[in-house]
Amino acid sequence: MKALLCISLITIGLLGSIPAGAVWSNDPAENNPICAEGQIQLSPAIVGDGENGAIIVWDDWRGSSGIYAQRIDAAGNLRWDPAGVLICDEIPNTGYPEIINDAAGGTYITWMDDRANPGTHSIYAQRLDGDGNTLWAEDGIPICVMPTSMYGNQMALDPTGALIIAWNDERDDLLRVYAQKISPAGIPLWTPTGVMVCGVSDHELMPCVLATQTGGAVIAWNDHRGGSQDLYAQRLTAGGTPYWSPQGVPICMAPGTQSHARIVTDNCNGAVIAWRDGRAGNNDIYAQLINYGGVSLWPLNGIPVCEETGTQDDMQLVSDTAGGAIAVWRDRRTGDDIFAQRISNGGVPQWTINGIAICNEVSIQIEPAITPDGSGGAIISWRDGRNMDTDLYAQKVNSSGVLQWAEDGVVVCNAPEPQSGPRLVDDETGGTIITWYDYRGDDPKVYAQRVDGDGTLGPPFAAAPDDPASSPGLLLCGPNPFVLETTISFTLAHTEEIALGIYSAAGRRVTILSQGVFLAGPHQIRWDGRNARGDALPGGAYFARLRGGQCDREVRIVLIR
Questions:
Q1: Is 150 helix (H, G, I), strand (E, B) or coil?
Q2: Cis (ω within 30 of 0) for the bond into 207?
Q3: Closest by alpha carbon to 274, among 308, 311, 325, 239?
């Protein structure tokens, strides 16, 4: 009987009470276990916790089905009950967890759940605060419960902090795409059983979703209308009403199959969508930019990200924070390798045509995962068979396509037996936290590892005070990421003249929050995500910088739109 969800926060910053002496493992054969309890633990997912750490969620089979949560801090300490915080213990079957920040220091979690109709999947959700407390009903709230199954719970966060979910639904004897919006209080805001996104006379598969700055969403899917397998998209308003053509707008109608779409923001008023494309008879990678008016801005049927010989698949996509995107995929042009490409906002490849090799070591490299590095580049992890068992490796690539770590990557885990399902998140200091499950013991368990910005494993952190903002020398921000407003905290050891400004990822100043003579002691200054003219800034990474006197501090802030 399948169970669900242990969630862990893996915090890599200097926030929180950190007992001295605790460190992340620096041994790739050891790593950090996330939950010592239970039996089988599978399929972890991960997000940042807003404090330089992360939250991990996974399937758990400890006796009966259950959902658990855990937090691990910057020094590698588990912050909640070592056995995990129980989120849901309903039976029979639960699984396929996904997780997203709530922009208030906590997280939203969704999963597939059979409790209402055994043998068919419904979608349930729970919200956690930063201390691991559940904020909605015991065992979660139903997002959609129908006599037929639902699949593929994909999530996005709107500017008010509400959760938008898209999924596949069999209720009409066809797989269709539905969506729902849930308030931070756990109240459905759209049609109780979900909004039908399209509703043509054939299957609609594998939705992906992006929240818009106006409270709605853009959703893309694989569409079987007319006997083909094309790619379509729809925009929903903040009220859940289709904004484009009632049956969606075509993203790609080229010959062959277009599927497995991924979507990220262009940090303005549009979405970059990439997909697996079969127009040439093998699977390539293509992409398109569509604005919020439903107009495709790149050439008809998309631009090639990679059209090399052989098959390209298992593609993942992140924003490059400059209006474009970085894609990574499994590439079989000469073997089983990992390649990546950056596409500008104008639809122009920024790296070598058909992508750069992240790893083309002899043997197989599969299951790539990717996270932005906070500076326009990315960190990528994958399963790697160079040492017989499939181990985990990682590589960092900058915005210019230059590899930053050892050739063919650094080893993250080489414990005995295979490692599977890597997922990773930016640690907001230039490094990453990676989670996975592996078979080094009697049953598969979930592990995690921090990799520093220079590619070293788990460097120790110095102990921090109970209130880090009270320590001179630290500049902190919370919530982070944020939607509406965040608070920047710092302490001055001496009275001095300073200036606190907000800068873009490119280094351009967008506003000065405060400047003048500040007394010694703690200070807090709020920022509402606007520039000096009062205009709302697009989502993305920004930097708060404190300058003057003996001050020279900086903290990265993520604004969600």
A1: strand
A2: no
A3: 325
Residues with Cβ < 8 Å from 43, sequence gap 6 or more? 58, 59, 95, 96, 97, 421, 437
C-alpha torsion 229→230→235→241, nearest 10: -40
Query: What is the C-alpha separation between 296 and 304, in angstroms, rounded?
Result: 15
Position 181 pLDDT exceeds 90: yes
The model's confidence at residue 92, banded by pLDDT at 50, 70 and 90, is low
Sheet containing 270-277, strands listed edge to edge, beginning at the edge strand earlier in sequence? 258-265, 270-277, 284-291, 303-306
The arithmetic mean of pLDDT across residues 110-122, rounded, is 87
User: The dihedral of CA 132, 137, 139, 140: what is its sign?
Assistant: negative
Write out pLDDT tens, residues 18-62.
333 347 899 999 999 888 676 788 889 998 887 778 889 888 888
Please give the structure tokens belonging to residue 246.
């009632």
Which residue, among 98, 143, 163, has the nearest Cα to 483 in the 3D structure? 163
* Contact indicator for 347, 298 with CB cutoff of 8 Å: yes
Half-sphere CA count of 334, side-chain side, radius 13 A: 8
**DSSP character string of 26-40:** --TTT-EES--SSS-
541: tokens are: 């990474």
Instruction: Output the pTM of the full model.
Output: 0.83
Q: Which amino acid is at 163?
A: L
Spatial neighbors of 523 by CB under 8 A, at least 6 apart, are: 489, 490, 491, 492
d(CA 38, CA 60): 7
Residue 448: CA count within 13 A, CB half-sphere: 38
Distance CA 438, CA 420 (A): 6
Max intra-chain CA distance, the chain: 72
- Between CA 561 and CA 217 the distance in angstroms is 11
Instruction: Dump pLDDT digits (tens) for 292-328.
Output: 999 999 999 999 999 999 999 999 999 999 999 999 9
Query: What does pLDDT average to over the chain?
Result: 88
Q: Which SS3 state, helix, strand or coil, does residue 22 take?
A: coil
Give the DSSP per-residue string, 243-294: -S-TT-EEEE--SSBEEEEEEEE-SSSEEEEEEEE-TTSS-EEEEEEEETTS
Please give the span between the terminal C-alpha atoms of the chain, in angstroms, as a whole number. 39
- Residue 353: CB partners within 8 Å, gap ≥ 6? none
- 379, 331 in Cβ contact below 8 A? no
Residue 468, SS3?
Answer: helix
Which 3 state secondary structure label does DSSP give 354? coil
pLDDT digit string, tens, across residues 237-269: 999 999 999 999 999 999 999 999 999 999 999
Phi, psi of 97 (to 5 degrees): -75, 145
Q: Which residues contact 526 (CB under 8 A, 6 or more apart)?
A: 485, 486, 487, 488
DSSP collapsed to 3 states, 432-453: EEEEEEECCCCCCEEEEEEECC
